[in-house]
Amino acid sequence: MKVGFIGLGIMGNPMAKNLLSAGYEVVVYDVIKENVDKLLEAGTKAGVSSKAVAEECKIIITMLPNSPHVKTVIMGEEGVLEGAKEGTIIIDMSSIAPLASQELYKACTEKGVKMIDAPVSGGEPKAIDGTLSIMVGGDKEVFDEVYDILMVMGASAVYCGESGAGNTTKLANQVIVALNIAAVSEAFMLSTKAGVDPIKVFDAIKGGLAGSTVMNAKVPMITEGNFKPGFKIDLHIKDLNNALETGHEVGAHLPLTASVMEMLQVLHADGYGQNDHSGIAQYYEKITGTTIRK
C-alpha cells in the first residue's frame, strides 16, 4: 500500500521511516527540501506538492506545526483535496485546535474524503522507536480501517470520539505535561537551594506517588543542562494557546495553564523557544540565579 506523508520535521521524519520499515511504500513531501532529501536516502519516493502526493496515495498522513499549516496543506492551492480521489483517507497527526479539525473534517466530507484527527504524545524518542501514544477523533469505521497503520507508529491508538476529540485529548495531555514539568522544576529548585543533591532527590521520590513519566524523562535532561529539543518550547506555547482558547470557548477555566504559559512566554522572549520544554527549569534558574545540576 502507498502511504503519503506530508511534514518531515523532528516527528514526521522517524514516523515516515517506521512506515517504510514496516513495508509500506511511502511518498513524502515537505516545503523544506533538506527534509525530503533525508527521507529519499532512506528509500521513500517524493511528490512535488501535497496535491501530487494525494494523486498517488489513498492514505495521506500530515504532521505539521499548527492549524494554519494543516489548513493550507489540505484545503489550500495545490493542497491534498485538489488531488484526492473519493474515498481517500487523511490522517492528520498534527496537534491543532479541535475546532480547526472539525472545519477540516467538514471540508473533506464535502469532497467525499475521509479524515481523522490523530495527534500523538511521546516526543522524538518515541517517534523514533514507534511507541507513540495516539489519540483519535473522527468516524470510528475510519479509525478501524487505519488502525494497523497507526500501530506501526505507536504503542497505543485510542478512539476518543467524534471529529476534534483526538485534539481535545491532546490538549489535555499537553496541559498535564506542561504543569508537570513546571512542578518538577519548582520542586527541584527548592531542593537545590536547600543544599540537597537533585539526583538523590530524584532517586528517592521517583518510585513514589510523585513519580511520573515526565519526571523520569525530564529530570536527567535538567540536571545535565541538556535542553536539546525533543519537543520545543515554542510548540508547547502553541499547544497551550490552543488549550486556553478552547477553554474560553467551552467555559473551562485553566488558571494553572495560564501561569505556565507566562513562564514559556518569558523563555521565548529570552531566546529559548527552540529549547526542549524541559527548559521550563531555565525560568526558575533565571529568577533564582541558581542552576539545577547534578
CATH architecture of the largest domain: 3-Layer(aba) Sandwich
Helical percentage: 55-70%
Estimated structural class: alpha/beta
Radius of gyration: 20 Å
Topology as H/E string? EHEHEHEHHEHEEHEHEHHHHHH
Descriptive overview:
By secondary structure, this protein is of the alpha/beta class. Helices cover 56% and strands 14% of the residues. The chain has two domains: 2-163, 3-Layer(aba) Sandwich (Rossmann fold); 168-288, N-(1-d-carboxylethyl)-l-norvaline Dehydrogenase, domain 2, CATH 1.10.1040.10. The chain has 14 helices and nine strands. The chain has a six-stranded parallel sheet with strand order 3-2-1-4-5-6, with helices on both faces. The protein has a three-stranded mixed sheet with strand order 7-8-9. Strand 1, helix 1 (12-21) and strand 2 (25-29) form a beta-alpha-beta unit. Helix 9 (165-193) packs across helix 11 (213-224), helix 9 packs across helix 12 and helix 9 runs parallel beside helix 14 (280-288). The radius of gyration is 20 Å and the shape is globular.
